[in-house]
Amino acid sequence: MNEMVATKSFSDKPMMSRDEFDAAIRAVGPERYHDLHPFHHLLHGGKLSKGQVAAWALNRYCYQAAVPRKDAAFMSRVHDRQLRRDWIHRIHEHDGHGDDPGGIERWLVLTDNFGLDREYVTSMRGALPATRFAVEAYVNFVREQPLVVAVASSLTELFAPKIHKERIAGMLENYDFIEDRVMAYFKKRLVQAPFDSEFALNFIKDHASSRAEQEACVEAVRFKCNVLWVQLDALYHAYVNGFVPPGAYRPEEVT
Amino acid sequence: MNEMVATKSFSDKPMMSRDEFDAAIRAVGPERYHDLHPFHHLLHGGKLSKGQVAAWALNRYCYQAAVPRKDAAFMSRVHDRQLRRDWIHRIHEHDGHGDDPGGIERWLVLTDNFGLDREYVTSMRGALPATRFAVEAYVNFVREQPLVVAVASSLTELFAPKIHKERIAGMLENYDFIEDRVMAYFKKRLVQAPFDSEFALNFIKDHASSRAEQEACVEAVRFKCNVLWVQLDALYHAYVNGFVPPGAYRPEEVT
Fold first, then answer.
1. Which residues of A touch B74 (CB under 8 A)?
2. Most exposed of A153, B14, B44, B214 (fewest Cβ within 10 Å)?
3. Looking at the predicted complex, does its ipTM rise above 0.85?
4. Residue A197 in domain
5. Contact A72/B72, CB-based, under 8 Å?
C-alpha cells in the first residue's frame, strides 16, 4: 500500500473511523448503483422485448468475461501469498474449476436461451463498443491503481444481492422466455457475493492508511458504478431509443 | 496472437516445421541453461559452505515468489477461458490451494533449515538487487509480450527435471545440513514440470503463426535462461568472490 494515490483533490479532514468509512462506501449504492438505471426498471418490470433482453445478455457477457482477467491482474500485483490464496476463488467462480463449469458458462446458458450463437457471443463482435470500453477500463483500473483502491472497486458487490433477487423474481415472473434454469448465474451469485464483499470491505478498512486512501476507495466504488451505469446507458440508447451503432447486434436478425 | 512481435531483426526464412521449431527451442538448454553455470557446479558438488547455500536459498526465494504473479499477469491477458482454466494450476502449485501448502511454502522449509527468519526471507530485503531485478524482468516480460512469446518464456521447464534430479542427489549426498525433507520442493517439481512444459510446447507450436513469432519464442527461452543465469552470476560475485553488496545478506550474521 505504498503507492501514491492517484486522485484529484483531497480534504484535510482526519481519517474516517472504520464505521464512518464503512458508511461512506455503502452510501455510494443508493446514490449511483445501476439498480437506479431506467434500463433495469424496464428489464425487471417485464417491459422489454425478447430481442432487447438478448441484447442485454449479449453485452453483459463482456463484463462477465472480463472479471477473471481483472482478478488475475490484481493477483499479478499482490506480493502477499495469503492474499492471493484468498482471492483466487474469484477466478474459479467465473472460469469454473474442476467440475464447476463456472459463472461465464452459466451466463452462456442465458445467451443460448436467446438463440445467440456462442461463437458470436464470445467473440464480442456484436457487443456495443461502449460496453467493451467500460469493462476494459475496469481491468485497467485494477491493474494500475494502488492495491487497496483496486480492492475497493470490487465493492459494488455490496449492492448486488438486492438487484439479483429483484432480477430473478422480476424476470421469471415477467418473461415467458426466461426459465428457472437460465437464472442459475444469479442464484449462485446470491451466495458468493456477500462473502466476497465482506472480505473486501474488511481488507480496505484494515489497509487504507490515510484519509486520501479512504477517499480514493470511496471514489473507486463510484468509478465501478460508472462502469456498470455506462453499460446500461449504451443499451438504452441502442435498444430502447433505437440508435444501434454500426456493427452492433440487431435483435431482428435473430428473433 | 495478433500483437506485433517486438524483437530485433528476423530472417526471411520460411516458417519452421513443428519438429524444427521443437528442436530450436530445445537447443537453447545445452547452450545457456543455468545447469552450465559454475555456481551450480559448486552447489551440487558440495563445494559451498552452509552460508553460501543459505544465500542461494534466500535469493532463489525471490524467483519462487514471483512465479505466481507472473502466471496471474499472463492470465490477466488471456481472453480464452479454457486457456485460463488450463493455466491456473500453476498458481495453485506455487501458492498452494486447499490442503496443499504449495511450492513457496516448501521453499520456506528449505530457508528455515538455514535458520533464516521467515519475515526476513519474505521481505526480500537481504536478497541481492540483481536477483530482484531479474525476477521482476520476468514478470514484466510475461505482462507485456505477445501471449505466445509469454508462454514460450516458461519453457526453461523443459530443462528443469534434469537439474532437479542432480540437485536432489548432489545436495543430499554432499551436505550434512540438507535432509530429505527439505528437498520436497524439487521432488514435487519433478512431477509438475514435464506436464507444464509439454502443454506450453504444444501451445507455441499451435499458435506461433509466423517465422518471426517462432524466432521470438526461441528468443524468449534465451531471455528466461538469462533471468536464471543472472541470479547465479550475482550469487557467485557476492558469495564466492566475496563482493557482497550493501544491505545484502551476510552469512556470518546467521551461521
1. 72
2. B14
3. no
4. yes
5. yes
Q: What pTM was computed for the model?
A: 0.88
Give the pLDDT score at A3: 45
Whether residue A2 is contained in a domain is answered as: no
Instruction: Tell whether B176 is covered by a domain.
Output: yes
Write out chain B residues lying below 8 Å of A143, CB-based: 76
Number of residue pairs across A and B with CB atoms under 8 Å? 74
* pLDDT tens, residue by residue, B68-109: 999 999 999 999 999 999 999 999 999 999 999 999 999 999
Q: Give B9's pLDDT tier (boundaries 50, 70, 90).
A: low
Residue B101 lies in a domain: yes
From the list A77, A84, A104, the residue facing B81 with the nearest CB is A104
User: Residue B53's domain is classified under what CATH number?
Assistant: 1.20.910.10
Q: Please report the beta strands in B89-167, taking only residues with DSSP state E, as ranges in sequence order.
A: none
- pLDDT value of position A27: 97
Domain count, chain A: 1
Confidence of residue B2 (pLDDT cuts 50, 70, 90): very low
| Residues of the domain holding B67 | 33-243
